Amino acid sequence: MSSQPPLSTASDASPANTIVRVRGLHKAYGDFTAVDHIELDVPRGEVFGVLGPNGAGKTTTLRMITGLIAPDGGQITIDGHDLARDPVKARQVTGFIPDRPYVYDKLTAFEYLRFIGGLYSMKADRVARRIDELLTLFGLREWSDGLIESFSHGMKQRLVFCGALLPEPSVLVVDEPMVGLDPKGHRLIKSLFRELVADQKMSILLSTHTLEVAEEVCDRVVIINHGRIVARGSLGELRLESGQTDGSLEQVFLRITEETQAERDQAVAQRFGHEQGDPS
Ligand SMILES: Nc1ncnc2c1ncn2[C@@H]1O[C@H](COP(=O)(O)OP(=O)(O)OP(=O)(O)O)[C@@H](O)[C@H]1O
Fold first, then answer.
1. Test site for ligand 1: of 25, 29, 61, most ligand atoms within 8 A of the Cβ
2. Which of the four, 222, 236, 263, 278, has the lowest number of CB atoms within 10 Å?
3. Which fold has domain 15-93+169-277?
4. DSSP secondary structure string, the chain?
5. Ligand 1: centre distance to CA 48 (Å)
6. pTM of the model
7. Segments of the chain scoring below 50 in pLDDT
């Protein structure tokens, strides 16, 4: 018998221990449902991964959680703040790193980070201290006065990390953290995530294609396919559920997403067969 809770119910954490709570989240583009009544609880002080194949609905889910896309239905609560009723407070405790770095090319790294400090009404001395800490951590200190337009993609991505971390958010939402980073950047981000959680009590919600990243850094994950959560739990729990007790996350992932794809194909075939055989 499976040890998993029913997939329709989010039970990733107790209410008091939940930093991001999502209920019945739904988004459609015309007739196409991109996110189909998703429920999840991100526990405080953990790295929580959203995995899924291309087009599964990961980015749409994360963008709704950060308030960048309006949902068609459902409720999102961040650190006790309802995103629909209290968007400013909910966003103030959230840092977001999109999959593609959007930065103001005509600013220097320092100017960009000072601008972000202003958006969060941070005091000047705290901004200066945080800028220094973060540029050093991300190996950008000597580029502090360099124009962003001269930066490589990986440097811009690291600067976006600095910007998101500047105000010390309670929860960091990261869409595909490894895009555009070299192996050194990968290693930095993986150890940074664990440090942020262990030392700064931050919570991290990330989406990734890189299963090795999920395997190394995530405390638990949900797998999304066709806009729905098809599995949730720690890697150990997912292994049990998929019957791959000694498999890698890649094997578990393929098993679960292929199963659901096969189930859907079967459902379509049944409907198609029924319609074909329907005398009316
Ligand atoms: N603005 C939009 N208009 C129409 N369809 C959209 C829009 N944004 C996303 N979609 C569709 O919604 C589905 C989910 O997209 P989403 O970007 O959330 O998936 P994803 O899991 O992040 O995929 P990937 O891993 O490829 O980035 C896809 O089929 C996508 O084509």
1. 29
2. 278
3. Rossmann fold (3.40.50)
4. ---PPPTTS--SS-GGGEEEEEEEEEEEETTEEEEEEEEEEEETTSEEEEE-STTSSHHHHHHHHTTSS--SEEEEEETTEETTT-HHHHHHTEEEE-SS----TTSBHHHHHHHHHHHTT--HHHHHHHHHHHHHHTT-GGGTTSBGGGS-HHHHHHHHHHHHHTT--SEEEEESTTTT--HHHHHHHHHHHHHHHHHH--EEEEEES-HHHHHHH-SEEEEEETTEEEEEE-HHHHHHHHT-TT--HHHHHHHHHHHHHHHHHHHHHHHHHHHHH---
5. 20
6. 0.85
7. 1-9, 275-280
